Amino acid sequence: MVKEKAAADNAVAFAAYLEIQGDSVVQSLNNWNGWQKETYRLVPRDCTRILASDPMAIGVPLRSVICMSTTYLPHIKILGAEETVKGVSGVRFIYDSLYSAIASEGLIADVGAETAPDYEKILYLNCDAILSYGIAESDNTYIEKLRALGQKVIVINDYLEPTVMGKLEYIKLFGSLFGKREMADSIFSAKMSEWEEAKEYCREVPKTEVLVNLPFKGIWYVPGKASYMAELVRNAGGEILGAEEGENLSSQKSFEQMYSLAKDADVWIHLNQAVKTSDVAAENAMFRQIPAYKKGNLYNNTRRVTVAGGSDYWESGALYPEEILKDLIMIFHPEIAGKYFPDRKLVYYIRLDD
Question: What is the pTM of this model?
Fold first, then answer.
C-alpha cells in the first residue's frame, strides 16, 4: 500500500524512507541499524563555517559528487548536472553512453565498491558529497569511516521503497541537492501523470498470469504482492503467480511449488541472463512443458545491457517507471498497446526466441 504523508511541511507524499522539509532539511530513514533518521541540513555552499563545524550540513547546490551506485546517475543527468559526477563505484558497469564517454576521457574515477572503497582516491577527489546507501545485515562501517575522514556522505534509501511512486519521488531529493527542485517537481508530476494514464488502459482487462524469475540453487524467489515489481505487473494488467499477500519482500518457494503454479502461466519474465528460449530450457528440461514457454511468451529485461554486465533496467528503470509499465502492457496485453501506443517498441524488454 502506498504510504501517503499528510504533513504540510513535508514535500514527499509517497516515499517511505525520505522526508524533505522546506528548502533546508532532508531526513533519510535507514533500517540497517535500527530505524534511525539521518538529518541533513542543506545550506548555501558559501556558508563555510557551518559546513566545517557540522558533518551533516551539506552545501548546495552540489558542484561535485561521488556516486556509490550507478542508479543515481540518471537522476543527475535528467537535471542537467552530469558534469558534477567525478567518481562512481563500478565505472565499468555504467550503461549510459554519456557517462561512459566522460569516464573514458578520465573525468570520472572508479572509487571502488562499498565493501572496499578507494579512500585515497575519494580524498583526492574531495567532492562536495558522496551519495551512498547502507544495507541491512551488512558491514556499513565505510560510511562512518568516510565521515571520520571529513567527507559529507548522504545515505539514499530509494532501493528500499516498495512502491513505484515512492522510488520515483527521489528525483525531488536530487532536485534539492542540485538546486533544481522546481525542475525535479515538474519531472515527477509529468512522469506520474503518464504513469496514471497508462494504468487506466488496463483497469478493466482480465489479468494475465505471470511467472517471474528462474530458480536459484533450487529456490524460486517470488516478489510479494505489496512489492514494487508486483505493482508494476498489476498495473499492466497482470498477476504474479505465487506472490504472497501483503508482502513487499520476495518469498522463497520450492521448485515443486512454482512448477505446479506454472501450468497457469501466460507469460514468463525476468529470466536471468537468458537471450534464447533454449537458454531457459538448459536450466531445466521440464521448463519446456510450461505453457508460457510453449507459446513463446518469454521476456527478459535485458534489451539494454553492456558487455561488462551493466543493465539500464536497474540503472534508470526507477526513474522511468512509465516506460517499464508500457513495456509490460505490450507484453501482457498487446491488444491494449496496439490501441493506445501502436508504434511503440519495447524499451527495456526483449522477447526470447530460438
Answer: 0.94
